[in-house]
Structures are given as structure tokens and as C-alpha cells.
Amino acid sequence: MAHPIRVGVGGWNFEPWDETFYPPGLSKAKQLNYMSRKMTAIEVNATYYSSFKPETFAKWAEASPDGFVFSLKAHRFSTVRKTKEDMKKSVDLFLGQGITRLKEKLGPINWQFPGTRKFDAEYFNAFLSVLPKEKDKQSLRHALEVRGLGFDVPEFYDLLTKHGATVVYAEDDEFPKLRHQGSSFAVARLMQSQSDETGGYPAAEIGRFAKLVTGWSKKQDVFAFFISGAKERNPAAAMALQERLGIAPPAGEADATTGKVKAPVKKAAAKKAPAKKK
Question: What's 129's domain CATH number?
């Protein structure tokens, strides 16, 4: 039996989406409610830069439907520590801010390392060893996003398997494309959407992604996020992939502005320059 595949984008507040994705007149306060009913997951980038209160995570959980998942990016300071003691302090600080208030909607945690960090077995064994497998009796899933050199070696994958973690697969020519099969889940960040493609990617590319994640889902839960690139196109890309996979929400879903059922509104999309990669 295939494992679940969840598809989404990064965040839910992005001004160009007011023109390319959200219904006219939808308030900022209702954007999460709307997006979480069009996709099956969201990667939260804001947690990479700031801390939040437990009540905020609880509010996100309440605003989204059953089965929806939030993948959180760990705070940027947590992946630049040099000693195991400092690693643990930063990891505990991030995990202790109340993220478990998301309850069953808490998805993978993305620990993104700077591109200057090269593979060092001792360093990464120390880091992985301070990542707890649960918090507040809730299971945690950890994904390391690495952008440096030397990671595509058996020693790195063995460490991930040993500690029950995985590595993020980054679909971008600037970063290594690393694939770990020894985990119960897989995380992909698809980062090359194009402004001149209404759906973010050509249909053939969406088909390639569908084939890729379907293959992974034979043995792993899968989380695929359209990130960066032409960010204004990413919701369209996510919905196109869901449709190709047969998991897109039905047309005529209740509109978040009124609660009434209405057909999807097609809007012309403005072109934007590629966003800075996150």
C-alpha cells in the first residue's frame, strides 16, 4: 500500500498571490484557511527567522482542516553551533517554543545548514544525536537540508539512518540533489518554477515530479514543497502536481471569503523576477 503524499508551498502570505491565487477581497486573516483547503501541506519559513508563541501554533492548527500538515524550518541559529552542548541548547530552544501545539499536524522539521558547512562525520553525528525523537509525547521527524560539499557518501546516509532522520532532496541546479532511502519519510523542495509558465513548470516537468514522488511513496511518506523560483507561480504548480497525483481538492470547494460553494476563479498572473532562494 502506498504511503501518503502531501504537496504544498512555502508560507501563505505573499503579496503577488493576492493576484495569482487568492480570491479577490480575501483578507490576510483568512489566507491560511483558504490555502490549507487547496493544498495538503505548507512549509513555514517564518520559523527560520523568528520564534513564535504556543498560541500561534495552536491557532494555525485550528485554522487548517484535518489531515493538513505544517513542515517547520528550524531557526537559522540552530544549525551554526560548533559544540554539542551549544547544538543541544539551540535545538531545545526551537523545539520548546510550543510547536507541539500543532499536534498531529506537525510535519517534518527542516534543519537547513549554510552552504559553507561541508560534510564532517563527527560534527553531523553530534548534531543528529541531539535531535529528540519525540517532544511532549509527540513523535518528531527531522530532515537535514545541506548545501555544501561531500555529503553524497555512504557515511552521511548511514548517520541519517542511524538517527532516524533524512536529507532534503533539493531540486535546484545550485544545490546537491541528495536522496536518502533509509528513512520512513522523504522531503523534496522543488525550487525552479518559471515566471513565464502559468503553472510554474511545463506539464512534462509536473509529470516528472509526479512519477518521482509516486515512486518514493511506495516505501515512504512524502512531502513535496514548491519553494523559491518564481514564487508567484508556486501555488499553481502545487495544485497541478496534486491534480496529476489525483489528490487535488474537488472543484467548487467552499470559498473562504463567504463559506459558499463557488467555481474556481481563473486570474491572469503577473510576471515576477525569481525570488531569492530560501
Answer: 3.20.20.410
